[in-house]
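Can you give me the bound-state structure? Components:
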Amino acid sequence: MYYQQQQSHPFLKIVVALPTMVAGCRGILEKGIQIDGLGMKNFLTYESNVLFALRFMIDCNVVGGNWIEVPAGKYRKTSKSLSNCQLEFDCLYSELISHAAEGEFSKMAPFRILSFDIECAGRKGHFPEPTHDPVIQVANLVTLQGEDQPFVRNIMTLNSCSPIVGVDVMSFETEREVLIAWKEFIREVDPDIIIGYNICKFDLPYLIERAATLGIAEFPVLGRIRNSRVRIKDATFSSRQYGTRESKEVTVEGRVQFDLLQVMQRDYKLSSYSLNSVSAHFLSEQKEDVHHSIISDLQNGNAETRRRLAVYCLKDAYLPQRLLDKLMLIYNYVEMARVTGVPLSFLLSRGQSIKVLSQLLRKAKEKNLVIPNVKRAGSEEKYEGATVLEPKAGFYENPIATLDFASLYPSIMMAYNLCYCTLVTPEDVRKLNLPPECVNKTPSGETFVKSNLQKGILPEILEELLTARKRAKADLKKAKDPFEKAVLDGRQLALKISANSVYGFTGATVAQLPCLEISSSVTSYGRQMIEHTKKLVEDKFTMLGGYEHNAEVIYGDTDSVMVQFGVSTVEAAMKLGREAAEYISGTFIKPINLEFEKVYYPYLLISKKRYAGLLWTNPDRFDKMDTKGIETVRRDNCLLVKNLVTECLHKILIDRDVPSAIQFVKNTISDLLMNRMDLSLLVITKGLTKTGDDYEVKAAHVTLAERMRKRDAATAPNVGDRVPYVIVKGAKGAKAFEKSEDPIYVLENNIPIDPQYYLENQISKPLLRIFEPILKNASKELLQGSHTRSISISTPSTGGIMKFAKKQLTCIGCKTLLSNSDQTLCSNCKGREAELYCKSVSQVSELEQIFGRLWTQCQECQGSLHQDVLCTSRDCPIFYRRKKAQKDMAEAKRQLDRWSF
DNA sequence: CACGATACCTAA
DNA sequence: TTAGTTAGGTATCGTG
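Here's the bound-state model for the whole set.
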């Protein structure tokens, strides 16, 4: 920490017998000890907060996912076996040879991967609890990493189960036998990695707690250490990036738990993280979603119904494996472990900073430096971030060129040698009197020495990461073998992410080694650079300077500027863009580089961080429609808004057909108000970011989560979950949080939704923001007119006061109220019986057909055309349509029944 | 009804 | 032995 003129200092290295003693030792030294002749003295400690496993790996030069050689003759068989491993021997740790992940050693190990899923029989209306409810099935798939089919597929069932092709069905008479069989299976298969969906929070703890309830003492020995019991601990993880999440920490020695739910939540921003929704998203494969209350019925049926359950259970074990393969997670995660040096398990259980710290510790060791364990200072400190240039909002119908700094923050840190060990304290600035040519004074006022005096560790780490990335990308181009390609692609991704998170690490005031002098210097250089770029572009590309038009920077954020060169073709904009990038890059120190990347044409700039446009990287045709920040890319909008905005942008930007966009809006509004909208389009989801009491204001999704907790605590959303809801009709002037409701509940109880809310609070503003730059009187054009007057005939409410209201019949022909409930038609419509009867009949048959089609579709999804559909998936549009069709059909049949002759 | 505070999510 | 950063838009709630 800080630039040290003196090349080396004496340090005292303290070695203790057990890892746990490090903390105690550190405490004593920090608090201070009495030394004869010196009095009370306290000490700054160094590297006293490094996790033991990481310490060991760093000292032995071992990284996560790394190959280790135990040289012949350097080990001997253990005298007494302590493990369940296939090979067991003793070896001195210093004899291990750690191989860098290159050549032969970059290959992935043939990990044995177990994917499993359990089913439990909850009591009616309750979510299963391990203290009451039995485990009735466990499905297992075992796959060798790199192979595309599992080599073991089995299901352990309580009670009989009809055979399933290609699956080893193992039936048992008692639950105890099921659990013991699974435990034995684990020992026999000896998996390296255990995967599944939500296994860390549900399946694993459930099995263990259930075994404890049943008193199966031998069950919780699932790891590789003989006689070591699995331990469970409640854990919460909380960070700005990943949010707060409660989970369970299950210790299974020697096997990595790789919960696909955690992977999804960390790596992808989705509106729903149910296995069903995720599978649909990544695998285009739906899965039936059987409500937990039905599972008991299937279990209590016969061998056939249990077989049905088994098929379902197997699919839940199969999908995580498919996701693992499809997203190449093993490659990406192992490469991340190799690049950053942390064990694989840290990547899912810990945050970003441990990865940077691991690299820092390794590099420091190499340089013979030690890292101080600085006190956690006040975390309130803030520093200024990046500049966002004031946007000149509007619809641009000429090409806009985009200039970007490549890896801006890493290159600033490299260019100006910003590091812990190059920072000069204000005191030292005065004392040391360093010559100006040896230091950089940053725009934020800090002083760092240049690399001739001391090369920074951070810049060196960054250089290595970026060079390695370049190499990985080059190798990737040459690679033929798909496995090799996967490894390299995973590696270049890991390298990029790692380089980008170094800056964040220095600014993390609650982390291990904050250094705001570095982070605020980085951003101050960044601010200076974007302003400089804007100025250069506007000064050079002028008519006075011999160009056809005056260039104008219309927007820019952090590391990019959008330039309107005034030219009318994409090609011309690209040419000028390249020229500008090259010219401006020349004015910066290496390795800072401004690149021309792309052209937007046309370009709709709404405000800071919000824009849309067609993106061109070559002049022949556009690559895609690119939207930033607006509703189409946000998860807290209902599909109705997302689809509507996407479709309008498509029509405006691609088709260049504004009238058709307007017509589309009108049709959609009309459909909404006529109650013709699919409920699935109206579902809004928002993340539950804290526990109930911590909220200071009431919000729709929070109050709904509370109400759901009262209905069924076990299935209600938890911290970190996303809560889907719809807004239903309520009292006049009721707040949104009073009108939010669970979509499934709405469907089952036939509660009318509030179309007006969707029109006024969901659709209108986003639309106006898009149309206003394009259309005069946008509000009048879109939101007023006949299409908004078609007031809905809502489905009658069954709850509340409506229970006491008697339903009055209306004329089948014209819907006027009838005084006499025996009547079918009013006096006006008398005489049209034949026509209207035919209409009723055809309505019923039409709806029957629609329903039939949807039903078949669901049957296909569940994989059998001979059985009832049980699926109630909140994430599946077909489910909502099927339910609606069913209701409509029933209503039509009721109408038909009124024609009793 | 205006306005600040809170909450959420995104850009970079 | 818990946590990468700041900037910014928008909706909604609560209060004066």
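A couple of observations. Residues 792-806 of chain A have pLDDT under 50 and may be disordered. Chain A is about 40% helix and 15% strand.
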